[in-house]
Amino acid sequence: MSASLKAKIAEVFEEPGCDKNQAKSEKERKKGCTKQLTPGAAAGGCAFDGAKIALQPIVDVAHLVHGPIACEGNSWDNRHSASSGSTLYRTGFTTDINELDVIYGAEKRLFKSIREIIDKYDPPAVFVYQTCVTGLIGDDIEAVCKRAAEKFGKPVIPVNSPGFAGPKNLGNKLGAEALLDHVIGTMEPATTTPYDINIIGEYNLSGELWQVKPLLDALGVRVLSCISGDGRYAEVASAHRARANMMVCSKSMINIATRMRQRWDIPYFEGSFYGISDMSTTLREIARLLIERGADPELRQRTEALIRVEEARAWERIRAYRQRLAGKKVLLITGGVKSWSVVSALQEAGLEVVGTSIKKSTKEDKEKIKEIMGDDAHMIDDMTPRQMYAMLRDAKADIMLSGGRSQFVALKARMPWMDINQERHHAFAGYEGMVEMVAEIDKALFNPVWQQVRTPAPWEAADPLLRAPDPAQLAREAQPA
């Protein structure tokens, strides 16, 4: 690991925006909030993957992965981050290094790749991502990017976050550091207003930003930059002229908010777009901060009027669903911020959360879960597929909300499942998103297919000896007394 990367990781671990960080000793603080990866355990995401996730939703730049083609193949389009314009971010660029590059170095190949991208696509900027292999052979992407920027007259941004540096959460922060070091503050916006805000940590999954933006437009609040969902390079570069920052219910890019407060005196708050009450709280906080920064105090009255209308409309639309969903139990197998931000919305829908996973959650996430669910919060550190299966078959949960990798456990148990992770095709943010989420849960729970698949086959009904054994029962019987 290079000295510059070590220094950057140490700086990230000293993050002042972390509430828990300040209570730690210097030795404990440098360990960070997440466990380091062990060999072979990177399926949940490495640092490179985290940086790519954080920055790829900037839609008009070229994202070039410097490494073997498999790194780009595994990270390309792994989230449904939608764009309202350019689709360049959906083109996969990689240097595709080979064995000779590993022996002799691949810096020349990287420089030629940057030139080819600029000649063919003419993007406003090129982001270059370091990977494990090129990091280990010593390719200096920062020097190559600097030379390419001088040669071609375009910003070429090095993102030094090889996978071996740590887990996905660290990669998010290293991607944010690249923006702080090379992008934010390098351009000026055409105009500014007292109602300009930045939204940080929102990736516009399935268009979630577009469910929130009309609410802000109705209040006259302008999103100067979204970092990074549906983002544009020029908007991110001029983000330092906003009056306030909102951190979207996650500390994955908290370093952007704290550094912007230090450098440009821009205050920030942490809010959530999930659930009716959390959405209303977020709108109130935006109004409060903007008024403190010079906006017309009348903004507060307009905000309360909008909240009254939207809340009444949302509660009315989910009223019938709440009656059907009352008492239904949910098993939430996800990671990070969704382990608590979605819980509040589920409770508002009348559902009971019987367990939420915390394997990829930080200490702050765990504290939020306890705050929402009480001291008896059912936090699951690491649930095996067999345990998930047994929990569903024993009817301890009526539906499982998780990512795509866990769906087959629920399907094998013949229980409803719904995608809550980044691969989903439905947007759940804002008041409209709350209605959408409740409707999708209702569809999954009451789909008639579950009754059909649980009915024994004709030959099983005729002869019980022909019924397939229950894997959960076999597992229980195999346990020592």
TrEMBL record:
Pathway: Cofactor biosynthesis; Fe-Mo cofactor biosynthesis
Any one Pfam family match given in the protein's UniProt record, by short name: Oxidored_nitro
Keyword set, alphabetical order: Nitrogen fixation
Domain Nitrogenase/oxidoreductase component: 46-445
Record-linked PROSITE patterns: NITROGENASE_1_1, NITROGENASE_1_2
Keyword RNA-binding: no
Entries under PANTHER family matching the protein: NITROGENASE IRON-MOLYBDENUM COFACTOR BIOSYNTHESIS PROTEIN NIFE (PTHR42956:SF1)
NCBIfam families to which the protein is assigned, alphabetical: nifE
Function: This protein may play a role in the biosynthesis of the prosthetic group of nitrogenase (FeMo cofactor).
Family membership: Belongs to the NifD/NifK/NifE/NifN family.
Protein name: Nitrogenase iron-molybdenum cofactor biosynthesis protein NifE
Source organism: Ideonella lacteola
